[in-house]
Amino acid sequence: LLSLVAIMLYLGISLNINLMIFNLIPLPPLDGSRMAYVFLPTETYFKIMQYERYIMIGFLVIFATGILDTPLSFVNNLVNTVLFKVLGMPENYLYIAISDLISRLPTFSL
Fold first, then answer.
1. pLDDT value at position 110?
2. Which end of the chain is more exposed for a tag (fewer CB within 10 A), N or C?
3. pLDDT value for 81
4. Is the dihedral of CA 68, 77, 31, 9 positive or negative?
5. Spatial separation of the C-alpha atoms in residues 34 and 26, rounded to whole Å
6. Computed from CA positions of residues 64, 69, 75, 77, in that sequence, does the dihedral angle turn out positive or negative?
7. In angstroms, what CA-CA distances link 98 with 20, 62, 77, 85, 105?
8. Mind listing the pLDDT tens digit for each residue in 36-81?
9. ∠ CA(41), CA(17), CA(32), 5° rounding?
10. Alpha helices per DSSP H over 24-92
11. What is the DSSP-derived secondary structure letter of residue 29?
């Protein structure tokens, strides 16, 4: 039971950190574009924001075609590595914990 709780806790933390990093991408449909307001001149920022809906459609197309898979998986691996180090867990902990849980499942025969 403890390993199940550890897996759920780890996955929840990892998912939240990855979503936070993803949301900071400075494209208008995401919150990172609001941070661009600080760095861009006001006029330029509002000109970009006029095209927010079109940028969102383009972003969804890029996301759906898998162009972002490599950068996002790199960030995910980086987050997981740092998270394992911070929590003091071995990198193959999830594999060991899930294997242990599966081995404890009752077997049914027909």
1. 65
2. C
3. 81
4. positive
5. 8
6. positive
7. 26, 33, 19, 19, 11
8. 778 888 888 888 888 888 888 888 888 889 888 888 888 888 887 8
9. 10
10. 32-39, 42-50, 52-65, 69-87
11. T
How far apart, in whole angstroms, are the C-alpha atoms of residue 4 and residue 79? 21
Residue 17 identity: I
Query: Encoding tokens for residue 56?
Result: 């969102």
H or E, element range at 49: helix 42-50
> In angstroms, rounded to a whole number, what is the distance separating the alpha carbons of residues 93 and 79?
15
Cα–Cα dist 46/52, whole Å: 10
Q: Residues near 90 by Cβ (< 8 Å), separated by ≥ 6?
A: 84, 96
* 15 Cα distance to chain centroid: 5
Q: How long a stretch of residues is the chain?
A: 110
Position 25 scores a pLDDT of 81
How far is it, in rounded angstroms, from Cα 24 to Cα 17? 11
92, pLDDT greater than 70: no
